[in-house]
Amino acid sequence: MKKFIAILMAAMMLMGLVSSASAATFLTIATGGTTGTYYPLGGDIANLFNTMIPDVRANAEATGGSAANLRKINAGEADLGTAQNDVSYFAYTGTDSFEGEQIQSFSVISSLYAEYVQIVTRKDSGINSIADFAGKRISIGAAGSGVYTNALHVLEAAGLTLDDIDEQYLSFSESTDGLKNKQIDAAFITAGIPNAAITELGSTVEVKLISLTDEEVANLIAAHPTYANLKLAADTYGLEEDVNCVAITALLVCANSLDEELVYNMTKALFEQEGILTHAKAAEITLDSFDVGVGDLPYHPGAQRYYQEVGALAAE
Questions:
Q1: What residues have CB less than 8 Å from 39, skipping those under 6 apart?
Q2: pLDDT tens digits, residue range 104-146?
Q3: Contacts of 14 (CB under 8 A, 6+ apart)
């Protein structure tokens, strides 16, 4: 009899464990390359959700970045993702790099931080402007990525096309290795500042970041209003002078199909986390800037409910 009771209790405990596991919500957050900002910040956000939301099991996945993340969400291969606001807009409207491939299966949770379009070269490269790129080996990111799109827009603003350069489709780490070994002449890196790949490169060779001219900035923003003109401070990378840049905004987006209550709790966690987020960019995630760069993109109903509750958005 005692043996029977022991077996019964063991079976009940096993059933409880199975039930508990089945009740958990597993979430994949698509991010970016391991040397960028998306991946470590995505891991920090996954830890936040795991800590603050009962029965959530989130993990960050390294990916090809913005465009890949939106496609993963659309294909049901990811639940959330980090993505540039411009690439998100192109996907939602089926324009620019998403011409003929409209994706509307995602919505916004929040703006995260400013992403600078950084154009890095060696100090001894002889390159001082975008005009100097003609005939040079330039890394423009993975084909179809957010970096690739930014590179095309910057070249266009300077009156150049891919036909004018020897384009290289490289990741951040491949770009910095290429610059270190003089296999490429310059690289586009769109990321939060300071970027780990550029910082690491600067520890081994003298680097220079290319400033855009005022005319190039004006041309670019006139053609693509999702950009903003920002100065990158010289002390970010130990440079001799500030850099005239354009920037876009990193967003946290999610599948429209995610439960409203779940997204409400994720949004609430982002803004009421009280020090759980440890990444440097967490300081930029505030209710004063949750809507920067969102534009006409829709919020997920769960996120919208939170913003209305705290008075950041007007109730409809």
A1: 31, 32, 33, 60, 62
A2: 999 999 999 999 999 999 999 999 999 999 999 999 998 878 8
A3: none
Could you tell me if 70 and 78 are in contact, meaning their C-beta atoms sit under 8 angstroms apart? Answer: no
Strand partners, 166: 137
pLDDT computed for residue 22 by the predictor:
54
Burial environment of residue 213 by CB neighbours within 10 A (0 to 12, 13 to 18, 19 or more): middle
Q: What is the pLDDT of residue 20?
A: 43
Please list the alpha-helical segments (H only) found in 232-296: 260-271
Domain hosting residue 241, numbered range: 116-248
Do residues 12 and 246 touch, judged by C-beta distance below 8 A? Answer: no
* pTM for the full predicted model: 0.80
Question: How many CA atoms within 13 Å lie on the side-chain side of 248?
Answer: 29
- Side-chain-facing half-sphere of 28: CA atoms under 13 Å: 14
Residue ending a domain, among 213, 229, 248, is 248
Co-location of 257 and 285 in the same domain: yes
107 forms bridges with which residues in the sheet?
Answer: 254
Alpha-carbon span 247 to 66, nearest angstrom: 15
Supply the pLDDT for residue 18.
Answer: 43
Inter-residue contact 139 to 188 (CB < 8 Å): yes
Domain boundary among 225, 248, 271: 248
For the cut 90, the answer to whether the pLDDT of residue 180 exceeds it is yes
Within 8 A by CB and 6+ apart from 1, the residues are none
Give the largest Cα separation in the chain, rounded.
88
Query: What DSSP assignment string belongs to 92-148?
Result: HHT-GGGTT----SEEEEEEEEEEEEEEEEETTS---SGGGGTTSEEE--STTSHHH
Q: Is-contact 285 148, C-beta < 8 A?
A: no
Q: Are residues 130 and 94 in the same domain?
A: no
